[in-house]
Amino acid sequence: MTTASFTTNATGSSHPDRIRVLVLETDQTFESTSERKGTFGDIFHSLFSKAGQDHEPPLKLETVMKFVVEPEGGKIPDVADVGEIDAVLITGSKYDAHGDDEWIWKLVQWIRSAWKKYPEMRFSGVCFGHQILCRALGSKVEPSPGEEWELSHTQINLTSTGEALFRTKDKIFLHQMHVDHVVDAPTSSSSEGLIADNSSVTVWGSSETIPIQGVYIRERLFTSQGHLGYDEQMVKKHVDSRFEKGLIKDEKQAEEAKEKAGLDHDGLLVAGAILRRQYFGVVLEAQLTTNPRHQISKPDYSKNNTPVRRIRHHVERYSYARSKNRRVKAYSPPNPFEFPLADARVLITYKNTKVTAILS
């Protein structure tokens, strides 16, 4: 990797496994935001670092930032240069994800090439990032009916997938700043085979006016139309800028959006879900245990414990045991350890070997 072309931040942690996230910055922050919070990459680094630190055990994150708007001096990296990256996050932007700009087309092709070349790479995107990822996978992206803006603090009604991802019921709230939207979720057919036929593509939430607020493909794609890292000052600045340029035409809507800008939102909650469910993987811990009492052992976070991809064969044993009707029993200890992603705890008996797997 050509390190000189990237900006890197790292956050330490007691957890030995680290994920490396490439943040593709598709816009620049306003000067007032830059002075307070830095670039969009800096904002996401701070947000996801906070989410990782709040997790037990803490999750280590390294962000590699790359500004990619080529008309403004950015550069889209070569796909061959990102092989050491675990995940890609694409930020929001003032540009149209459905546009015909040369750099937009290059970014669409970059996504498709990286998706195909690196089958274990995870992709996430926010606002523009959500839209262009879906476009690259064959979804239609266009302005909303009547070119009505969705602005500021907005309720998002969760599907069953959303409730599972965010570990909450019914609804969350995120800041919105968009007029374009994803019309239909991507499919294997629309992606021309990039999405596997057996992949489950689900929409995790909808708002009153936008039916697709985010798309989820297990261990591959996690997007959000709503912004995760916006604060009150950012929302107000973006609304004022768009109103002054005549993009937002309804003055009453603009004022109402600014009035709601200070309300609490769930950006950190969504960032935490993306971090643990997408970046670290649905199966974050699968550990052989030889405890003679057949108790679940505390996860081994020593340096000898390998990342998810190297322990997946233990989970495959689980699948094999299920397919052969082997004994698989649910196990819920009185005081269970706080496993990452502990949506289910199962103790598997397979050929006299105890396998602890955390499944979703």
TrEMBL record:
Residues 123-193 form the Glutamine amidotransferase domain. GO terms for cellular component: cytosol; nucleus. SUPFAM superfamilies: Class I glutamine amidotransferase-like (SSF52317). Transmembrane segments: none annotated. Pfam families: GATase. This is Glutamine amidotransferase domain-containing protein. It comes from Cadophora malorum.
